[in-house]
Amino acid sequence: MLSQKTVIMDENAMRRAIARITYEILERNKGASDICLIGILSRGVHLARRIAAKITELEGVCVEVGVLDITSYRDDEKYVSDSDRTQIDFDIKDKKVVLVDDVIYTGRSTRAAIDAIMERGRPRSVQLAVLVDRGHRELPIRPDYVGKNLPTSREEVVKVMVEEADGCDKVVIFG
User: Fold this and answer.
1) pLDDT tens digits for range 147-169
2) Residue 130 and residue 145: Cα distance in Å, rounded?
3) Domain ranges of the chain
4) What is 12-75+83-152's CATH number?
């Protein structure tokens, strides 16, 4: 059983990282026009909604937010799923899609997410925002926006906790 080693980000650090990611998204895309956010289940969805709220606060516009279930697109873990929990109720054609995930590790979740997105249309671009980049990539995938780079060993586990799902905001390393 893994035990908690250390808290990497507390609530304030997470809030600052999300704000920084939001500013970087707006700067790179010269505003919020044609942007949509798609959160990867489960915690990526909560982070995407927070980024969308920050964009609304800063730009006064609402960006669309979708939910992406990558379960059936994974190549490293096979799950039998009766239902696809994806909820993308808007057209992604010619949009700047920002995929949002909590942690990037091997890159396999991102690859699965890109496959799932491309099945739904052809966006103008796909960008990736993650709260934590822990390294150890197995695929040539690099996030465009990173809240925190966190070098870890393969034996360690990084857990992002969000108020909406876990009752608190923090990032913890277990090992």
Assistant:
1) 999 999 999 999 999 999 999 99
2) 6
3) 12-75+83-152
4) 3.40.50.2020
